[in-house]
Amino acid sequence: MLWPRVVRNNVRTGTDREIVRGYPYRSACPSSVWGELTEAATEDITLAGYTNYFLWLDQPAYVDTLRRKAEAGCRVRFLIGDPEGEVTRQREAVEDVALSVSTRIRITLEHLAKLGEVPGVEARFSAASDATNHVSLSVFRFDRDALVTPHLARGVGHDSPMLHLRRQEERGLFDRFADHVEELWERGRRV
């Protein structure tokens, strides 16, 4: 009652204030956003896309960047799908594209091998029982920011919508997605 309608419609005051920006396609998010979030992170970078392959293509010298971040004390984690898993095979049939899901995962594994054994960097495959939940939702966390992509039925990740979230409150959107990733991480197995 105290707030004029125009203010209520244009100022975020509820849980939606954690939404920094929405993109109709993940590919519509400028690569500079990914780079800026990576550079700004000092405590936690968690990349929990099912393949994560696009990061190596979009971010120049990403292996070196992640190594530098880890050496500076930032925890860097990758949660990826199992390239040999049943859900991976099912998703490949659904997507029916030349650059298969298992190939995209192997691109990430190849770059992780180039990264080598760096303290603070860890990678896990999601558990087989969690693979369906993992393939349908990608969460990329950079300290208090996250890029979240709920995957649409038949599209590949870059064609799915994405939200940029920034943590503002306990148990808000950011925390809900972060908790989802932590649950998958705990049941995952080391790469």
UniProtKB/TrEMBL annotation:
Residues 65-191 form the DUF5919 domain. Pfam families: DUF5919. InterPro entries: DUF5919. This is XRE family transcriptional regulator. It comes from Streptomyces mimosae.
